[in-house]
Design goal:
single chain, alpha/beta, Rossmann fold, Dehydroquinate synthase-like, alpha domain, two-stranded antiparallel sheet, 13 helices, globular, binds nicotinamide-adenine-dinucleotide, binds zinc ion
Length: 352
């Protein structure tokens, strides 16, 4: 078992081992947990892994109740969130009980927000079942639901009590969902670890899942431990995302998050090279790795429309407008950009 300790205000462990799902119940007992576990999952994941999880919990002496939400980002909303809270109340969950999120980032974000708010907060654990949730959303305590005007606009910081990652659960992922996660994995390499980046070109991610997830979680842990509430360094995790989000919006959400993050990373690396901030060979290296994982690198949108989209994103979220700029493999730096300063980056990165 690879165990990564996350030393946030409320510290917790991320445990990663293929085949470990049936052992989760025992683990919770050794952590001193008892009472009820409310499992929240979606209607794709629960039929695959719900029974194994519930059996493990029941055998360890827990009362287990389950609530299944429909799969998909469109259900990460206030209505489904309210239904989860009503379910918890009907089942008489108390503050000493536990929620368990079995699923990808949608289930994890929604369950985490329910845990942050039901009875003013109870504990929850994450059992990630997508590559993205394993390397990113299950760690760090950001929880949220979407509002009609934008994503993740209602939420809270609430760290999980445990992240239990069984990479064997990723074997049933549709290829496109897995590929989206690969974009985030490549992001970690470019962001902070050149040797790790190189290793992704030598052996497919699928064939080294435990190692890859462990290294990504270590990197996220280091950044989150430094900046739990996202006021500075944590924004490095937005590499490829500032323009990636703009591309998602310009595509009318027809392109996936992972595809847009891939294009966003390729674009910002080309821009950095054009400005002489990184080696001229870096864009080629980044593009080649993305392409080898079936991810796109050239940008089908104009610089003006991307700048508009990035600015309206910023207006809604109130976030600082910043870019994460590669200076070399494994060395990226934050640059604050004024609202009228985006176009040179976009044009330098190849947007028309
Ligand atoms: N909290 C954070 O820090 C953070 C970070 C990044 C992303 N997010 C959020 O994560 C969400 C995206 O997460 P995601 O990419 O995991 O999407 P998702 O949860 O929608 O999962 C993608 C699809 O795969 C299915 N699926 C999940 N696991 C499966 C498995 N093992 N086998 C077969 N099918 C499976 C799901 O049912 C769904 O249809 C977004 O809402 C995003 O905002 C949060
Ligand atoms: Zn992302």
């Amino acid at each position: 078992m690879n165990t990564i300790h996350v030393p946030t205000g409320r510290p917790y462990d991320v445990c990663i081992r293929a085949g470990s799902l049936p052992e989760l119940g025992e683990k919770l007992v050794t952590m001193g947990r008892r009472g009820t576990v409310a499992v929240i999952s979606d209607d794709t994941v629960f039929p695959l892994y719900g029974e194994t999880l519930c059996r493990s919990l029941a055998q360890a002496g827990f009362r287990v109740v389950c609530h299944i939400i429909p799969a998909g980002e469109e259900h990460k909303n206030l209505t489904v969130y309210a239904q989860v809270l009503e379910f918890l109340a009907r089942e008489h969950l108390t503050r000493s009980d536990l929620l368990a999120a079995l699923g990808g980032g949608v289930v994890g974000d929604l369950t985490g927000f329910a845990a942050a708010t039901y009875l003013r907060g109870l504990d929850y654990i994450q059992i990630p079942t997508t590559l993205l949730s394993a390397v990113d959303s299950s760690v760090g305590g950001k929880t949220a639901v979407d509002l009609s005007v934008g994503k993740n606009l209602a939420g809270a910081f609430h760290q999980p009590s445990l992240v239990w990652c069984d990479p064997a659960l990723l074997s049933s992922l549709p290829e496109a969902v897995f590929r989206d996660g690969c974009a985030e994995v490549i992001k970690y390499g470019l962001l902070g670890d050149a040797a790790f980046f190189q290793s992704l070109g030598e052996l497919p991610i699928r064939q080294q899942l435990e190692r890859v997830i462990t290294r990504c979680v270590e990197m996220k842990r280091d950044i989150v431990a430094d900046d739990e509430l996202d006021r500075g360094r944590r924004q490095l995790l937005n590499l490829g995302h500032t323009f990636g989000h703009a591309m998602e919006s310009c595509s009318g959400y027809q392109l996936s998050h992972g595809q847009c993050v891939a294009m966003g990373m390729a674009l910002i690396t080309r821009a950095a090279a054009a400005m002489g901030l990184c080696p001229a060979s870096l864009p080629g290296e980044v593009e080649a790795l993305l392409i080898s994982y079936g991810l796109p690198t050239s940008v089908p949108f104009g610089a003006e429309e991307l700048a508009q989209a990035a600015l309206s994103d910023k207006k809604r979220s109130g976030a600082r407008l910043h870019l994460v700029v590669p200076h070399d493999l494994g060395d990226c730096r934050l640059v604050d950009v004024p609202a009228d300063g985006l176009l040179p980056w976009l044009r330098g990165g190849g947007a028309a």
